[in-house]
Amino acid sequence: MTRDGNDIRMDLPVTLKEAVLGGKVPVETLTGTVALAVPPGSNTGTVLRLKGKGIGAPGGKGGAGDLYVRLAVTLPDKPDEALQQFLSGWAADYDPRRRGR
């Protein structure tokens, strides 16, 4: 977690399922845990904003900064056979290096 003025920036690991299908994931903020909506089709590097969940302005004047959450898709260390088979079939139709060609 890093501070940028009154904003906070953090990385958040998400599962492959959460990244592909979307969902709500818990995020620790300065004021407690909130549910962050991860949009379907998110990738590592996707940045989502939690408005007003950063650091409060000095003297209480003005609103709090924002919390920027950078998603990091995290894969299992040892994928099971079902995941390996799924990805082998899926990979035949998907190559990110060929987008837009």
* Helical/strand content category: alpha+beta
* Largest sheet properties: 4 strands, mixed
Helix content: 10-25%
CATH superfamily: Urease metallochaperone UreE, N-terminal domain
Return the CATH topology.
HSP40/DNAj peptide-binding domain
Question: What's the oligomerization state?
Answer: single chain
Q: What's the SSE pattern?
A: EEHEEEEH
Strand neighbour order, sheet with most strands: 1-2-6-5
Count of structural domains: 1
Characterization of this structure:
There is one protein chain. The protein has 101 residues and is an alpha+beta fold. It has one domain (2-75): Sandwich (HSP40/DNAj peptide-binding domain). Helix content is 17%, strand content 36%. The strands form two sheets. The chain has a four-stranded mixed β-sheet with strand order 1-2-6-5. A hairpin with a 2-residue loop joins strand 3 (23-29) and strand 4 (32-38). The longest helix has 11 residues, at 81-91. The radius of gyration is 17 Å and the shape is elongated. The termini are far apart.
Using brief descriptors, characterize the structure shown.
101 residues; alpha+beta; HSP40/DNAj peptide-binding domain; four-stranded mixed sheet; two-stranded antiparallel sheet; 6 strands; 17% helix; elongated
SSE inventory with pairings:
Layout: E1 2-4, E2 7-14, H1 16-21, E3 23-29, E4 32-38, E5 47-50, E6 67-73, H2 81-91
Parallel strand pairs: 2-6
Antiparallel strand pairs: 1-2, 3-4, 5-6
